[in-house]
Amino acid sequence: MVSTTFFALLAASFAVATPLSRQLTGNTTEVPLVTKAVAVMTGFGSDANGTVYFTQTTPDGPVNVTGTIFNLDPNAWRGFHIHQYGDLTNGCDSTGGHYNPFNQTHGGRYSAVRHAGDLGNIQSDNDGTAEFSFTANMLDLSAEYSIIGRAIVVHAGTDDLGLGKTANSSINGNSGARIACGVIGLTPSGM
Known about the structure:
Elements: H1 4-17, H2 20-25, E1 35-43, E2 49-56, E3 63-70, E4 77-83, E5 89-92, E6 118-123, E7 130-136, E8 151-155, H3 169-172, E9 178-183, E10 185-187
Protein name: Copper/zinc binding superoxide dismutase
């Protein structure tokens, strides 16, 4: 004999699997849901801190990256990248290299050849605050190459965008030490 609890759980699981557009209207046209993520940045060996938001409005569309980082050097360009791991057990140093699922060399945010996680530089103002908003077309929040669970890192130096004359230029843009980082996590899409 099957209990009514079983049927209640079955109905609840169906409601979760049914697109919101059909749950609310009975309509079979699905409304694309916006995917959002956030990283709360913490300084390691620095006072830098802030918040970075990621928004993807279509499953295969670009990701909008916005945020504010405080307590950077005034009037400076600082390297800004997605790193392979969301592991902060040893501060930002345990986040691995730049996220690079296609095995490319380092470049700038809009370079033809670059790591997926290469986001170039962010610029601070006179007070050491960097406010930024840009679109990244190699990032994804929900598919095979999702950045969810990875880390975003601010560096102590300026990223040379892979144009420098040293070996590290093609690896990390000579961006220097990792001064702040945060793990990228999903947020409710309505937030």
